[in-house]
Amino acid sequence: MNRNLLFLGGIGLGAGLMYIFDPDRGRRRRATARDAAHHIANAFDGAVGKTSRDLSNRAQGLVAELDSIFRCEEADDDVVAERVRSKLGRAVSHPHAIQVAVNQGHVTLSGKILAREVDQLLKRVWSVRGVTGVENRLEAHEQAGGVSSLQGGTPHRGETSELMQSNWSPGIRFLMGIGGGALTLYGARRKNILSAAVGLSLVTRGLTNMGMEDLIGLDGGHGIAVQKTITINAPVRKVFELWSHHENFPHFMSRVREVKDLGNGRYHWTVAGPAGIPVEWEAVITKLEPDRLIAWQSAPGSMVEQQGIVRFRPDGDDKTVVDVRLSYYPPAGAIGHAVASLFGADPKSEMDDDLMRMKSFIETGHQPHDAAERLMRGGAVH
Fold this sequence. Notes:
Elements: H1 2-20, H2 26-71, H3 77-91, E1 98-103, E2 106-114, H4 118-126, E3 133-141, H5 170-189, H6 193-208, H7 212-216, E4 224-232, H8 236-244, E5 256-263, E6 266-272, E7 278-289, E8 293-298, E9 305-314, E10 320-329, H9 333-342, H10 347-364, H11 372-378
Parallel strand pairs: 2-3
Antiparallel strand pairs: 1-2, 4-10, 5-6, 6-7, 7-8, 8-9, 9-10
């Protein structure tokens, strides 16, 4: 067993050294690794500061809340009124249309309200600390039509548990990460796969601050979004011409092996995925405005779900601003994205390089040495 582990470790170490010290791309990879290390260190320092402040504020708030409960002090009517008003936005869609009056803890509600929101509002008001009674003088309306104070507004969704929200605060992320790590270790020791999986999900959720739909790639997730802008020293017509013929992409992109024009705005893509494994899919042009924009999306049933849009804006006679917006849904969601990144298949880090190659290709007319087409002529895509 130990020999096998040593053998596998040696293979992994050798592959890592070959990746870092590759003659063609090793220097760039080492520079990228250094930049990533600095970025991680700075991000870690910032995250520690935010987390400590959030936990400190939560602790102070909890102490103050407990102190006020055990003291059982009667709240001033003005204080109770402010507490009630702070609840309105969570209970009704038009809080500005409701007036609140308090007399010795007795709350009187008046104004216009949608009928379906009355019960929810009364429950919320009764739950406010310091309220001794509630009088309903509200004017309920089944529909908002014809009532000026009920126009517009934001439909209320009620209070949502912080754990169910899309974004977690730094303190919650820290606590869930600690709890998830403990649950993962417990599941691993007890050979309880479910506990380990739940714990690992909590750790990943805390680290990425992304919803579970995005993490595991379920429908309804927002996917991975990338946005980049670059200025090219060439007329907009020349830049658009290159982008509108997707079969040109292997000339300046490092991982796009081949793009075949299938006609009618459909293209077949072959890209070097994680560890150089080819990944193929079809994409469809959904909108094309000459010298202005190109939009596309992957065809239904494709292995890679993605969509994007590129806008072209002239900056004088000889410059073009290119704005690229891309979103994609990797297999296994953000977890799959993170795994792919370990093998150098991260669109967020590689789009910068591809755009710089495109800029060089257009401005100089020379194909970059690390473009996919040139690499394939000399051997396999790295």
